Fold this sequence. Notes:
It holds the Pfam family TPR_20. By secondary structure, the protein is of the alpha/beta class.
Amino acid sequence: MQPRNMSMSGVVDLAAVKAAQEAKAKAEQARAEAARQGGGPGAVSPADLVIDVDEAGFERDVLQRSTEVPVVIDFWAEWCEPCKQLSPVLEQLVVEYGGRLLLAKIDVDANQMLMQQFGVQGIPAVFAVVAGQALPLFQGAAGKEQIQQTLDQLVQVAEQRFGLTGLTVDPDAVPGGGAGAQQAAAVPAGPYDALLEAAVQALDAGDFGGAVQAYKNVLSDDPGNSEAKLGLAQAELLQRVQSLDPQRTRQDAAEKPGDAQAQIAAADLDLVGGHVEDAFGRLIDTVRRTAGDERDTVRIRLLELFEVVGADDPRVSAARRALSRALF
């Protein structure tokens, strides 16, 4: 446990932290209620989960959409017999995942440039784009069970590493029985009001270690609890910055623009100081300058900061698009 006399007053507005946490929880409840009542204005139909994409619409329909939902790409052609076997299976599974995935179908005869950019050597070929990053999935026809295992892994990675929870789909129109649909429709366990309140009290007291542990206690039993996820991200951020020397941290970042760790630390300070766009912009610029594991470390920290601010914030949406352009 962190000492209870540790104070971060003046560094971050804890009332704003709590308000952001409550606002996100309300937004999640509103989306769930809209889904129960037939989807609401933001919902999509199952037919919207399978789209045809060409080179002109690739950035809009794939890159931008990949910041909110993993996009599976099916490279196919009319003359390809294995494609005709695979495509219906992909379409069925994507619909069964109830908005956790989007399927983009690309005709290679009409879109040679996209085929070359992805390095497609033969079809059918299936890729995914998650937060602007292209991932090869498999080539050639495959069985439904094998494909579903691959998609399960994709959904898990997209949520855990990128914070993508997918689209809202009209529940009355989704076919039942699919594993993905069951996962999307799962009801969170609970209630956890006492544990969540204890975490907020720890935050207010400056006991960030205690808040981290309280949120982790909730998530160990209910990994999908959105309020605990948001609270944990905020508590971990506050725990990180409490040991930083602000002046030294900003000096290091200014002197070492290519140093990923220096920029990450400065971005943390930017965020707790209320400079959200500065924090996001700093890390997106660092993503452009780095590669390999170092780049991945910066990207993951940026996604953690997205979680702190909240997926519904327009600054997060804009930064996700900028991150996609930096990565792709």
